[in-house]
Amino acid sequence: MHAFAASLGMKREWYQAKASRPHHGHYDLPERRRAAAVALGVREITWRQLGRMLRERAR
Predict the structure, then answer these.
(1) Domain count, the chain
(2) pLDDT, block means (10 residues), the chain with 59 residues
(3) For the chain, which end, N or C, has fewer CB atoms within 10 Å of the first or last residue's CB respectively?
(4) Which domain holds residue 31?
(5) Residue 38's pLDDT is what?
(6) What is the DSSP string of 18-35?
């Protein structure tokens, strides 16, 4: 994830994570970088899909 974020010009210190919830770690992707991320293979998901993914990772 970090290498991919770096390829979009994002800094490592922008990574957001809490030790108590490591499965929630993420970068906030600015709207201006969205098209580039999708072109590189990012899969867009809905908030509902995100919630499902986070619940599954927590198990």
Answers:
(1) 1
(2) 93 92 83 93 91 85
(3) C
(4) 2-58
(5) 94
(6) ETTEEEEEE-PPPGGGHH
**Residues 6+ positions from 52 with CB-CB distance below 8 Å:** none
Q: For residues 47-59, b (16+ Cβ closer than 10 Å) or e, as one string? A: eeeeeeeeeeeee
C-alpha span between 24 and 9 (Å, rounded): 21
| Amino acid 19: pLDDT | 84
58 closest CA partner among 18, 29, 27: 18
φ/ψ of residue 45, rounded to 5: -130, 160
Residue 25: what pLDDT?
Answer: 86
If DSSP codes are grouped into helix, strand and coil, which group holds residue 52?
helix
